[in-house]
Task: structure prediction
Amino acid sequence: MGKSVFYYLGLMLVCVPFLRANSLWLPVVFLLAWGVRRGAGALAANEKVAAFRERGDRLIARRRGGLVALPVAAALLLPLCSSTYLVEVVTSAFLYAILASALNITVGLTGVLVLGFIGFYAIGAYTTGILTAKFALCGFWVALPLSGLAAMLFGVLLGMPTLRLKGDYLAIVTLGFGEIVRIFLNNLDRLTGGPNGILGIRRPGFGPFTIDGAVAFYYFTFAFLAATVFIVARLVDSRFGRAWVAVRENEMAAGALGIDVFRKHLLSFSLSAFFAGIAGSLFAAKQGFISPDSFTFYESVLVLCMVVLGGLGNVAGAVLGACLLIVVPEFLREFALYRMLVFGAVMIAFMIFRPHGILGSRTIALEREDAHNAAE
Amino acid sequence: MPTMPQSDILTTDGLSVEFGGLKALSRVSVRVREGEILSVIGPNGAGKSTFFNAVTGCCRPSAGAVYLGGERITGLQPHEIARRGVARSFQNLKPFAEMSVTENVLVGREIHFRSGLLSAVLRGGPFRADERRHRARARDLVDFVGLAGRRNTLARDLTYGEQKMLEIARALALEPRLLLLDEPVAGMNPTETGFVMDLVRRVQAQGITVLIIEHDMRMVMGISERIYVLDHGELIACGTPAEVRNDPQVIAAYLGGGKNARAH
Result:
């Protein structure tokens, strides 16, 4: 994937404002795209650009400890010295980071492109909404695991018949799934409240303490993000991670080594869905209100962008990608109209300067590390 | 070894494969004896790789059956056949390019791991024991195929010959009873070929039956106990290297274009 994913994501996003304004722009966009692609190709082949890429890889490999410690410290200290507004924004970045970490398992590690991922997030959010507010059957702490499991169940149900499909076909099926979930939520009035959504979802608490206020919920979400990253990182660095990457690299060779490709796909897919469900549950608790509008195709693309931007298969990359794509646009509010255009341009720039994402794929880090060890 | 009365580890009975109307393999029956080194030769397009694919479940036979040590394995999935002890390398190399050499071989150990998902997260005793044991075995195998200096190199950065060795190490990691090698020395120089021949003998010495597809006659004649010859998807000869070398049908297949030549 790599390069072309950047290109098409970029192109899609660049197109959005033009298409909204007037569809006559379409031929212009494609002509532009053709030119950009040629220009970008030439630029990417440029020696100086290549040297820049090399330098970046080396820097990241050498400073890995700092790359983890510094952001974690910054995240822990942030609420002490910033506005409530920024705390809220970063909290939602954390939610997206959980989503991106989850999606990274399927897209980055197993190599299965999923386009309607937000559907699982929606299922998690609505499970919590329905259980704790709509019918008030149980509290948050019971609803939370059930939300994860509900999303996972749908993951298995969707995956069983479809994970045997290849590449693009599967991407289209999952795209359809995301849309179907949203349409169901919009129309199952009795269960989901239809377009009005579900109101009055309460914040979780520990005994008498309620996790109220922006700062408390910030740390609450951060704890879940840390747990997710911890679990995913450990799985990546185990036989499961190796088997996933093996399946991504070559299904036939993996099969010849006794690996059941379908089951590995299903495992990674349902784990992704589980974490998305957990994130959805947290989202419902944070907002107190959910409606189908929060779970559109745009959100699915956004999460995919995060994974690709950070570096396919890179655990820290997914988190970084999420933080950048949520926080940076907040500072670009004045240019809201051109936001998509800037996004698209950034994606195409990344294709040239960092084709494996900001932190690069897992491999690049590994390779540099080895080169480093050998040099010592 | 050929002195002992031997049992068959692999037999095929009238194995046929069709692609559309094309008969890639027709009614091939072979018996592979436990512990032997056996070669399958034939001109390009004779159906050798198709034969391997049919045996390992990579393509579905249109007729016939495959038995592994008496068990019928026809129509099983590739991973099910692999789990029964059949490992293979590929003619068109399929290393896991973005993984290191050791990791590649560790993937071959996958079916021998016992620890589960939860223990991979918690990193308890069983997990670490598993990981230590299989890493040690993977390292041994990497050394065994002569890649000791390349353990941490990414597979995509290996030379062509090294990638071939990696595929053998990865296949051996399964601890197979039967190893299928598809053109293990194609494109290699005589020194490298000599190394592979020695390697195959060392594999055999561990009690693993080896089935080889190869064009390099020095290797085929030097190492095989028996040879099967395929031409146009049909078995045209079988026997010891000396017998096969002098078989008129084999000579015709190699020099005169086989069946077509005889038809004139």
Observations:
- The interface with chain A takes residues 56, 58, 77-79, 82-83, 87-88, 90, 94-100, 103, 106-111, 113, 115, 117, 120-121, 123, 127, 130-131, 152-154, 157, 170-171, 173-174 of chain B (CB under 8 Å).
- The first strand of chain B starts at residue 8 and ends at 19.
